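Consider a protein example.
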Amino acid sequence: MDAARKGIITTEIEQAAASDALSPQELMEQVAAGTAVIPANKNHKNLKPTAIGRGLTTKINVNLGISKDCCNFDNEIEKVKTAIIMKADAIMDLSCFGKTRDFRKLVVETSPAMLGTVPIYDAIGFYGKNLTDITAEEFLDIVEVHAQDGVDFMTIHAGINRETARRFKKTGRLTNIVSRGGSLLFAWMEQTGNENPFYEYYDKILDIFAKYDVTISLGDACRPGCIYDATDASQIEELIVLGELTKRAWEKNVQVMIEGPGHMALNEIAANMLFMKKLCHGAPLYVLGPITTDIAPGYDHITSAIGGALAAASGADFLCYVTPAEHLRLPDIDDMKEGIIASRIAAHSGDIAKGIKGATDIDYKMSTARKNLDWEGMFNLAIDPIKPRSYRDSSKSEYENSCTMCGKLCAVRTMNRVLSGKKVDF
């Protein structure tokens, strides 16, 4: 951000612009203004820089990491490799148990995609202490450890201060605070009587981020955990604080993303994207869902894709994937694959609606392949080339290039023959 404000086009800006819809000059101006970010820690040596923000294609993030119940490094690293093959733009390591630093370093070495973390998840396991025994200084120290290790962006729950917590207790909620980081900080404040250290010592955190060139992702501790709680006083109060924190970060040349709502009815999503951008001065929006109904456990990759597509169309810049295992268990690799595909569909649908330059080019090519009954062409252009190929191979028509749904009555086949002067015989 410092370089961009001085009119310097860095290597990261050039590389990110080359894979997106803006020129290096345009992207530099966006980074300088804070409406786009390029998360790129100085210590992440094999990173492929990627830009997130206004006028750019909507990016997607994949969550993974070790926990007490599932602490197999190999399984999670296999997820990292698969996510990269499936074109995820970012990996978030949400590890909270065991040798988290060893795992994090391994992810940094493995992944050319940008890496995000949530330091407070790591604090309890890292220090081996009860939550209330961890000091404010120790919370800040774990942030620097993550920065040293090469993390490109971190979720920092600085918006839930004592005043926000007071508002939450006064107004109440059906599902209370469902953010893991938010609930930990709320409990820490309630039981120690102290202010949220990430809010109280925010300037110190910004100094760490500036030192390593880490992007701050301002976490939404008060995101709604059900559609009933969406757009309530707690969510809005925290958002106002996040807007204030955004300006303070920019004053120190720290890039900022704003994390968005979790569960939300369809008719509230567009308005939320509008006032989130407004209150946070145009900073890129990182949306967790939104999940549009609460009654689909096992299918929340679908409810999230519905909400994510509308959010992206309405201005969201970065979608956090949701898997079918959401609310139920740690996702396995098949859950992750389903979540990535659903999220990529949502992101691309949003890009078409936003009018992102070149977004519909691949749709035009797919339509051309369909018109020509070019099955290999269709498979190669598909977001997921494996499933459509397996469906076709499992059930083939006796008629050339048709499928078993229509056979000889295939409309595309009929029109191609008629328009080329051939006889159509049924």
Q: What stands out?
A: The beta strands are 36-37, 52-53, 59-64, 90-93, 114-117, 153-156, 215-218, 256-259, 285-288, 318-320. The chain has two domains: 2-354, 361-419. The first strand starts at residue 36 and ends at 37.
